[in-house]
């Protein structure tokens, strides 16, 4: 059973559904498993909890609270 874990910033419900569909379809095609065998977790993080190049993504994208 393939297990997929994605660490990402906040997403809308539509974005999550699209991500799940795309990863599942790719896994089915590549690993030759049924879609029911693909388990996926989306771990969302606030932009202020993600750093890149020494600053938070909230600061980088001007979205500080």
TrEMBL record:
SUPFAM superfamilies in the cross-refs: Tautomerase/MIF (SSF55331)
Database matches in InterPro entries: 4-OT-like_dom, Tautomerase/MIF_sf
One Pfam family linked to the record: Tautomerase
Superkingdom field: Bacteria
Family annotation (Gene3D superfamilies): Macrophage Migration Inhibitory Factor (3.30.429.10)
EC numbers, comma separated: 5.3.2.6
Keywords, in A-Z order: Isomerase
Protein name listed in UniProt: 4-oxalocrotonate tautomerase
Species of the source: Alkaliphilus hydrothermalis
């Amino acid at each position: 059973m393939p297990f997929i874990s994605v660490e990402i910033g906040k997403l809308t419900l539509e974005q999550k559904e699209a991500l799940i569909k795309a990863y599942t379809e790719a896994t089915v095609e590549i690993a030759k498993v049924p879609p029911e065998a693909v388990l996926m977790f989306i771990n969302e993080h606030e932009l202020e909890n993600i750093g890149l190049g020494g600053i938070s993504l909230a600061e980088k994208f001007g979205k500080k609270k």
